[in-house]
Amino acid sequence: MLTAEVKLDAGQAPAARAALAGLGIGGALVPAGLREAERKLLIMDVDSTLIQQEVIELLADYAGKREEVTAVTEAAMRGELDFAQSLHARVATLAGLPEDVIAKVRDAVVLSLGAEDLIEAFHAGGHLVCVVSGGFEQILTPLAERLGLDHWRANELEVADGKLTGRVLGEVVDRAVKERMLREWAAQHGIALEHCIAVGDGANDLDMLAAAGLGVAFNAKPKVRAEADAAVDLPYLDVVRHLAGV
């Protein structure tokens, strides 16, 4: 599998953005059918991809469990732990937190640099933008609505009597679910998988990166960088549009 790596300091980013389309990096890596497709589908992970933080760690701050939760998150993203089991263990540390911490965390979320530009470029070209997250609906839905995303899915935190129970409701969004949502959304809109671009940073994203026509590792863990089609080691998410020819 061919891999294109973009390693630049943040100060070099403006030049990188302008030059990527002409460097041949995307053209050499991405099949012409994808670059020239009339309609494409971009699907992204959320935590540490669309946004700069890991939401579970922001929530854990309020429970005084940040270090414990961060260690589990890192192991899961490296592929050392089963994601569903790790999620249940991390969410359990949140039991008893007041529901209003969700709003506080929502307000603290920061988009990755270039995220809005990337979304606007895809939409301007008539393409779809979707996100699928191992994080939480209560954080993602207002953000997705504000950004005008076409589809999104995440886990739902259980709340009872105004407090988090330490559990999630329904099926956990793991790597298999992420790939399934890519396939379902692409089929719903009549877009071939070959015309899809998937972006993520952790092991939970590997299946959807493999299924898409172009899988991009964004500031990713070593295992993900090794298996993705392209690896972007730059804090600017809108670099992806140049790889995809948008």
Automatic annotation (TrEMBL):
What's the top EC group for this one?
Answer: hydrolase
Entry GO terms, CC: cytoplasm
Species assigned in the record: Sinomonas atrocyanea
Q: Which cofactor does it need?
A: Mg(2+)
Family classification: Belongs to the HAD-like hydrolase superfamily. SerB family.
Keywords, in A-Z order: Amino-acid biosynthesis, Hydrolase, Magnesium, Metal-binding, Serine biosynthesis
Q: In which pathway does it act?
A: Amino-acid biosynthesis; L-serine biosynthesis; L-serine from 3-phospho-D-glycerate: step 3/3
- In this protein, the active site sits at 45, 47
**InterPro entries, A to Z:** HAD-like_SerB, HAD-like_sf, HAD_sf, PSP
Its Enzyme Commission number? 3.1.3.3
Q: What is this protein called?
A: phosphoserine phosphatase
